[in-house]
Design brief:
- The chain is of the alpha+beta class.
- The protein folds into two domains: 98 residues, Thrombin, subunit H; 34 residues.
- Helix content is 31%, strand content 24%.
- The chain is built from two helices and eight strands, in the order αββββββββα.
- The strands form two sheets. A six-stranded antiparallel beta sheet has the order 1-8-5-6-7-4. Strands 2-3 form a two-stranded antiparallel ribbon.
């Protein structure tokens, strides 16, 4: 029963995060048997709400795989995927979803570590001042 509840929660989460659900209308490009693009002519002329979002494949050879979309060409209705793309070519008739989950990778370590180092230094200085103050009988 617990697995069924988990599956229902996952399905509900995906439903809420779905910005678009479509079916590919042409075979996408494949490089070294990896699906690097997908095409849905129903998106032709639409604004780019896809770039930077996550594409989830719901059927076909790459079912249950997800990749980030790096670009969308509204003239050709082609979505280009990050990296090597999916493990298989995305063929016509494949069901997919565009999820409102950012696929942009950000390296936050330098910013966070810099702030943590500043905070640690500030704490060290405050403690040093406090201990020195108390040792001299001023506190």
């Amino acid at each position: 029963m617990e697995n069924k509840a988990h599956a229902l929660a996952r399905d509900e989460l995906i439903r809420v995060l779905t910005a678009y659900k479509g079916i590919t209308t042409s075979d996408g490009e494949a490089i070294d048997s990896h699906g690097t693009t997908l095409i849905d002519s129903n998106l032709k002329g639409r604004n780019d709400f896809i770039s930077g979002k996550t594409i989830l494949i719901m059927s076909g050879d790459a079912k249950d795989e997800d990749k980030g979309a790096i670009s969308f060409n509204s003239a050709t209705s082609e979505i280009t995927l990050q990296g090597d793309g999916f493990s298989a070519q995305i063929k016509a008739g494949t069901i997919f979803k565009v999820l409102n989950i950012s696929s942009i990778e950000i390296d936050v370590a330098p910013q966070v570590m810099g702030r943590l180092q500043i905070a640690a230094t500030t704490i060290d200085l405050q403690q040093a001042g406090f201990y020195q103050c108390c040792r001299w009988g001023k506190g």
